[in-house]
Structure formats: C-alpha cells, structure tokens
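Worked Example 4.2. Consider the chain below.
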Amino acid sequence: FADSFAAKGVLHARLAPSGHAEEGECLDVFVTHLESKGGEREIRMSQCAELAGFVKKHSHPQRPAIIMGDFNIDGRQEEQTPGSEHAELLRTLQSAIGNRRLVDLSARDSESGTTRQHEPGGGKRIDYIFAAVPCQRIDCLQWRDVEVNRFQDERVDALSDHSAVQAELLWQPAAAGRF
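Applying the procedure from the previous section yields the following structure tokens:
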C-alpha cells in the first residue's frame, strides 16, 4: 500500500461570510486521511486522537464545525458495535467537540459504501462527513442531499480509487452578539 508511506495530517480552514466576520460567525472545516492499511487499527486510533486534539485546539464549543475525509474505518451498520473502530472514532471525536452535537451526515446514505465503485452497495463505508453543531444553535447548520459520488467517467473509468461522500449544507452564521 503506497498510502502507508505518505505523511498524514489534518487540513483546517475557517470560513466566514465576509472578510470582517466576528469569531462566532465562522465555520471550521477539518479534512483528514487516515492510515489505509487494513490491520493498522492502533495507528488509525492514534491518528484519530491526534485529529481530536487538533480539532479541540482550533475550534470553539459555540462554533459549528465540519470534520470530514477518508478515515479508512468501516461504518457499515454491522460494524457499529461497542468495541469497533467506528465506535472508538465517534467517542474520540465527541471528546474533541465538547457539548456540540456530533452528526454523521454520511450515515444518511448508510447503504452506500465508498470502497467498491462498481459493486452494488459500494462496499465498505470509509469516508465521512461529520457536523459538530452547538446545541444552543442546532439549526445553524442544515444538511441536504447527502450522497455517495462514484466519480465515474467514461474516458478514465473512475477519477479516484474509491467513491466520495458529498453533501449540500446550509450554514446560517450567528447573528451579531450571539456568540
């Protein structure tokens, strides 16, 4: 697996509705790609802990956030057991976002996997879009049209080694003084 030799990390972007937005009007977006080698649970869990620490350091409990990427952790229903990697991922992310509500947007299309573009059902679900929404402003981030995009192209067959999860979001920044 060539992926095993690649450095891993997190990208962070802070979005604002205008160039002069106050801190409370921002949306944090975090993107990652975790270890892909099948038997490397310990490495992925370590990377999840690093991701959680980064999210905690660079976000605010009253600001919404999106945490997304290729986690290489199977999220199919049958894999969501108390001791699974998926359960550990959710616990670790929840610890990073504090009192915000963690929503797995990719679970809205739970029967669509991302690892097998040409198979019915799409294989395992390893790509995620999570929303961390402040409980006092639960309506500040609304999601629609969550789906798996197979990125198939007749000229090159597929544009990636696996499918992606995509979502259309409606973000309503905090009104002035609400933060």
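The CA atoms of residues 34 and 71 lie 5 Å apart. Residues 41-58 form the longest helix (18 residues). Compare this with Example 4.1 before moving on.
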